[in-house]
């Protein structure tokens, strides 16, 4: 559980800073809001409200893993606003459509 108590800014990219960039990038893109909520639901740990920081942010170890697999171990690993928007657009395109 120690990773849960780490500051929001972990090696491999700050989770809080990434969330702020994502919110800012999505403010003008309401068509991506449902995808953003779905991504948040997938990334948030179960029962996140029971542990500090009492926010639906991914576990620090999981976030480091995701940033390393996305950007490599030598890269700063901070998704830009464009990366976040493009990921959500990819999620939108990949979602199964009702028949």
List its salient traits.
mainly alpha; two-stranded antiparallel sheet; globular
Secondary structure topology:
Layout: H1 2-5, E1 9-10, E2 13-14, H2 15-26, H3 33-43, H4 60-71, H5 81-94
Account of the 3D structure:
The N and C termini lie far apart (43 Å). A hairpin with a 2-residue loop joins strand 1 and strand 2. Helix content is 54%, strand content 4%. It is mainly alpha-helical and 99 residues long. The N terminus is likely disordered. The chain has one domain. A two-stranded antiparallel ribbon has the order 1-2.
Short note summarizing the structure:
54% of the residues lie in helices and 4% in strands. The protein is mostly helical.
Number of domains: 1
- For the CA atoms, what is the radius of gyration? 14 Å
Kindly state the percentage of residues in helix: 40-55%
**Looking at the chains present, what oligomeric state does this protein adopt?**
single chain
In angstroms, what separates the terminal alpha carbons?
43 Å
How would you spell out the order of helices and strands?
Answer: HEEHHHH
Low-confidence region ranges:
1-12
Biggest β-sheet: strands ordered side by side in the sheet: 1-2
Anisotropy-based shape = globular
The number of strands is 2
Structural class: mainly alpha
- DSSP strand content: under 5%
- Mean pLDDT, as a whole number? 80
- How many helices? The count is 5
- Sheet of most strands: 2 strands, antiparallel
């Amino acid at each position: 559980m120690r990773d849960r108590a780490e500051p929001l800014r972990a090696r491999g990219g700050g989770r809080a800073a990434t969330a702020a960039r994502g919110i800012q990038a999505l403010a003008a893109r309401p068509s991506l809001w449902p995808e953003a909520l779905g991504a948040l639901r997938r990334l948030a740990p179960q029962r996140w409200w029971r542990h500090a920081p009492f926010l639906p942010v991914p576990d620090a170890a999981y976030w480091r893993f995701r940033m390393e697999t996305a950007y490599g171990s030598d890269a700063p690993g901070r998704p830009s606003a464009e990366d976040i928007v493009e990921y959500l657009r990819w999620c939108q395109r990949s979602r199964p459509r009702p028949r």
